[in-house]
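Ticket #4471: structure output looks truncated?

Reporter: J.K.
Steps to reproduce: submitted the chain below (122 residues) through the standard prediction queue, then opened the result file.
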Amino acid sequence: MAKHDIEQERDVELLVNNFYSKIRQDEALSDIFNSIIKDNWPAHLKRMTDFWSTILLYTKKYKDDPMPKHMPLPVGREHFERWLELFNLTIDELFEGQIAENARKRAASIAMVMQAVKGIKE
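Returned output as attached by the reporter:
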């Protein structure tokens, strides 16, 4: 399959679904995500598609603040590193281009900000 850039919402949905499929099976992250999301995965995937669509395609579908929901999670630097590794792996598998590169940068920025807010040091 030839790679292309993230250009439409269906591309964002593909990214989100493939990324969270990895998360749900990952030894380091699956317990954290599955214990919080439980059987609400379809709603979470839709919400995350709206979030990334807003960030990458400027659709303005996501209007919430994600920080308060993530602050109580029992995560450390190693979890953020793994999250980012899986995100970048998913980008590598599916896409190439300027928006795909922007997605990488935005994910790294999100991980950095969340760690700073949580007080996680290097």
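Triage note (M.O.): checked the attachment and the full token line is present. The mean pLDDT is 94.
Status: closed, working as intended.
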